[in-house]
Amino acid sequence: MNKNTDIDIVIRYLEDPDNEQLKRQLNDWIQEDTANLDIFLDMKAMWQGDPLPAASAFDTQGQWLQLNTALETLPAETTATATRTTSRKSRVIQMKSRYWWAAAAVLAAGLTWTWFGPGSYKTITTAQNLDSLHLPDGSMVYINAHSTIRYSRSFGKNNRQVKIDKGEAFFDVVQNDALPFKVDAPDVEVQVLGTAFNVKAAKAGVKVFVQSGKVSAAYKGTEKKVILTPGQEASLLHNGNSIDTRLHKEKNNILAWKTRCLTFDDAPLTEVAAALSDFYNVQVIISNQQLADKKLLATFPNMPLEEVLDIMRKTLQINITYKNNLVEIH
Q1: Kind and range of the H or E run holding 200
Q2: How do the domains of the chain map onto residue ranges?
Q3: Minimal CB count within 10 Å: which of 62, 135, 146, 192?
């Protein structure tokens, strides 16, 4: 597969990320060479509008001349029919423009590496969709919507540190006793050897939940820390010094954003309201406090909020109104 075709795969996927065939093609290309993942992530970041580095003493003009020469040799798109319609010609012109942009993105990615050096960070920002990332050490990161994480370009060589600037991520970490895995969140540092855990950086503070293994969560610059085991969650407030811990039952909704399934096992409405608010990004209030202790036994596998509320109305025989991103239970 030549470089022009590689660029075409990435661009077509970025234009239509829900296309299953394009997803498979992109995945096959990434599996061919681990360096392809770096190219894809850099191009994706630029596609989403991440800023490029400032100009340096790099011989930009010379590189562009080389690039222009290479682009002039790009093969024209072929079609099964001998004649092309006007719309088809328009598409060919558009794709050549895309090739130019994509090649520029690849060149800029190389500039970023050279200019910032091995200590720089790669940044992944999600909008309304979830995303996942295969780190160089084999660990997996699943990223919630509206989140931003960063990791060093030297990740896996002399460090295994990931920064969460905002949002939420689930980590499935490959064990390496010689090189602990660290998550740097606002005011909080999480350290593990090999485990699966969730970190949520919100306005009020940071929450750490452990699915398996053992995790240390500590306030930066202090000795105030807690060791968490499976099922435990720690809450660490911004500018605080106390750590609240809670042991969750096996069926909980902390990872519902990742599994896309809400499960309530005789859960009180106060707990249901909090889970719905977090999952659907809406405000949920219980205006009639006599309903707060009502229990819900139900499972909602990635269902629209309107359907969930309708089932709750009928099951619990309560009144629910939903308007302008506000759900009121009364």
Answers
A1: strand 196-201
A2: 3-77+84-117, 122-247, 256-329
A3: 62
- The class (CATH top level) of 256-329 is alpha beta
Residues 5-35 pLDDT 10s: 566 777 778 777 778 788 778 777 777 765 6
Q: What are the pLDDT digits (tens) for 198-211?
A: 999 988 899 999 99
Task: Give pTM, 2 decimals.
Answer: 0.62
Amino acid at 289: Q
Low-confidence ranges of the chain (pLDDT < 70): 1-7, 33-35, 38, 42, 45-119
Q: With CA atoms as reference, report the closest residue to 139 among 170, 173, 97, 94.
A: 173
Secondary structure element (H or E) that encloses residue 299, with its range: strand 295-301
Say if CB 329 and CB 284 are below 8 A apart.
yes
Show the DSSP H helices in the chain as ranges: 3-15, 20-32, 34-47, 60-72, 86-116, 256-259, 269-280, 305-316
